[in-house]
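Field reference: sequence -> structure
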Amino acid sequence: MSHIVSIQTQIRDANAVRAACQRLGLPQPTSGTHRMYSGQVAGLAVQLPKWVYPLVCQVDTGQLQFDNYHGRWGDPKHLDAFRQAYAVEKAKIEARRKGHVVTEQPLADGSIKLTIHVGGAA
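Structure field:
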């Protein structure tokens, strides 16, 4: 039986953040305090393409902190791509942790279809 699932993503897994960066060809995230336009933010920083300031993942709260000045300092499509990559990688990590096999299919509209084969049967 198949199910379609919608996910509201909270960024709480540092390993999935690293996997999302690798998937997107981004530099590996750095932990610490990071400079933003009007202050500093602590967390796991991801440098999105052509963004002036990093995207900072606060994995303890699941929140993302960023300053892209309404798209002038960073294209929101890169943030959307990161969120999607994180969700895919986190779902794969959790499915594999439970012994399931995951297959992935990119779709024409840019979305990704994940199929989780329960019990590892493909």
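Note: Residues 14-90 form one domain.
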